[in-house]
Amino acid sequence: LAAAQAALPKLAVKPKYRVCFNQSEMDNPWRLAQTKSMQDEAKRLGWTLVFTNANGSAAKQAADVRSCIAQRVDAIFLTPREEKPLTPVVLEAKRAGIPLFVIDRKVDEAVAKPGRDFVAFIGSDFYDEGRRAAEWLVKQTGGKAKIIELKGSTGSSPAIDREKGFGDYIKKYPGIKIIASQTGNFTRDEGRKVMETLIQAHPEATAVYAHNDEMALGAITALETAGRKPGKDITIVSIDGQRSALDAIIAGKLGATVECNPRFGVKAFQTLKDYAAGKQIAGRLVNEDRFFDITNAKQNLASAF
Ligand code: GYE
After folding, report:
1. What 3-state class would DSSP assign to 21?
2. Measured between alpha carbons, how far is 158 from 287 in angstroms, rounded to an integer?
3. Ligand 1 site: residues with CB under 6 angstroms?
4. Residue 175 gets which letter from DSSP?
5. Disulfide engineering: 254 pairs with which of 40, 54, 78, 248, CB 3.0-4.6 Å?
6. Degrees (nearest 5) of the Cα angle 163, 87, 149?
7. CA-123 nearest atom, ligand 1
8. Predicted structure pTM score
9. Angle at 98 between CA 95 and CA 100, to 5 degrees
10. How many CB atoms within 10 Å of residue 225?
11. Euclidean distance between the first and the last CA atom of the chain, given in angstroms as a whole number
12. Which residues share a beta bridge with 21?
């Protein structure tokens, strides 16, 4: 066993565990699917899942984790809303002797490292999701696009990495430019409102890159209200791969979506069991993500969340 892992809080082998799952918010289908996946697997295993919902507040989420530490649960699964505000509580769990798993979003790994300060990070490669969205858009537009970017929640790792992965990829294409970029906080309503304003200010836009499907769907509504024809005079790409986004692809409005798999339950709890059994755990367990466009949206509709 690597020395770093040996220095992490121990976990006894038990038939059943009492674990916390600290959710960041429950305001979009991705969050609902992730929560359901954790609850379903806890139920299947007969474990007790202490669930908290921070309602979009990083400060509340930090308090939620502290309350889990105080309750002396066996382990903590944290899906940190933002990187920096949730980093201290990760270190506090370690000091309190409670193994913690960061799932989905990252904390500040310059301060709290997987395999050293917490057991592991389990989640998607958000940088690569951004890169794949850019790759599709470049191909689809023949290397010419004026893009409006709708970013995720400020300070969250998917917003940071999806911006960077996309931005780095388009650097080598001089005909591809981001002409406006603003947060829509990962929600449909804010995506719509922000797009209403941005499309007035930038009528020359020919493409939209949304950091998640919900904002893309909100943007489609705003664009149609503004008299634009999504999928015809403006190309839209997003991330998540939820069912309603696949419907929008089939309807010809959304161009493509990179999947971000929200089903963590089985993998998260299996990793805990492996950890308790004394197995060496990789610090980073990366989820596989599919890609949906008009060529495969229909076939994958049933398996989307
Ligand atoms: O893309 C978005 C959700 O953290 C990867 O959070 C997740 C993101 C997901 O609110 O829809």
Report:
1. strand
2. 14
3. 28, 30-31, 104-105, 158, 186, 212, 214, 239-240, 260
4. T
5. 248
6. 15
7. 5
8. 0.96
9. 105
10. 12
11. 37
12. 51, 77
